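Let's see one such:

===
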Amino acid sequence: MVIAAFWGIIAGSALLIGAVTGIYSKISKRLTGLIMAFGTGALIAAASFELLSEALKESSIFNVALFFILGALIFTIGDFAVIKFGGKERKRSKEGNSGSQGLAIFFGTILDAIPESVIIGALIAKDASMNIVLISSIFISNFPEGLSSSIGLKKGKFSDKKILTLWSSVILLSAIFSIVGYLVMDKVSDNIFAGLSAFAAGAIIAMVSSTMMPEAFEEGGPAVGLFASLGLLTALILTTL
């Protein structure tokens, strides 16, 4: 359980690192977009190679497909709710986030973190080891999220202290959700674990498609396709180590 919390914190800490970078240094939007594209490719690889492929070893294609679609659907419903309350720009560095938008951005980031953190804990419960591909992919994708969102919040007159407090609390919640994933998955059968892995994969794919991909292209331009491919390839290479 402690190990699950530790790796949840490590994966989520990239949000705070990105926030500090966005607040105290200048980094171009293009570079931010390219980093996000790389993270997008890495997350897609992790969802495909580490979650879906492993789930298929323990369950039927029907069960995996059902839970995959369900994960994507539930994330999408949550995303609609976050957008309705002003969290659409949570991965963007655009001007002017009001107080209510800032809270929506905060809750939207938590929505993004839930499937990632839960599956970290779940995988550790099942094999008692770190999943380097998934954790590396989440870490890489969290950095530009913290960076872009913090720049936007700063433009919206949020204080540095408040921004850093928000991201620190997300890291704490990442640890908590990792523990939840560990405690729940430690008791379930391989078939149920496979379904929940597929569920997390669907949520992750929905997340990168609705939030990360549009932001990456908007900031980085056509080169993001290459960087997303490099991110996927890097994750694939890590699976062979």
The chain has one domain: 2-239. Residues 2-239 form one domain. The chain has a mean pLDDT of 80. DSSP finds eight helices and no strands in the chain.
